[in-house]
């Protein structure tokens, strides 16, 4: 049989429970935005590093193809070697090429002289843009990546993460491809 003391303890516990039922919701409302901001920041910055590494891989693969002097077989008599090199970088970028919209910068070093050319929308690609046999070439991609999360976007002054990836290699001894006849 329950005594008055037991009933008093039960009533007190029930009242304490009723007083604390809203506390959990308030605590969650205070902590949740910070928690989700941290979770999204971790995901977003992980994605930024992944994009950077993927584009580094793409420029390295493009440079490795460039130093061989090779071209991919094409039935088109006006096929250009630089299209194959850029296509190799595009293919190795795992679909990110169009998203980062890279600007290509090529530095060709021949002995003591060095020339750098930036190829963007205003500068067309040209034959010999990746150097000749024995030249040291540096291919640099200047890229922009827009973060998905608005809160993270605010951390960048332009709203985008700008980054550069590059690869430097020496061209192997190769015979330049023949120039198409008009």
TrEMBL record:
The chain crosses the membrane at residues 28-51. Residues 22-64 form the TadE-like domain. It holds the Pfam family TadE. Keywords: Membrane, Transmembrane, Transmembrane helix. This is TadE family protein. The lineage of its organism: Bacteria, Pseudomonadati, Pseudomonadota, Betaproteobacteria, Rhodocyclales.
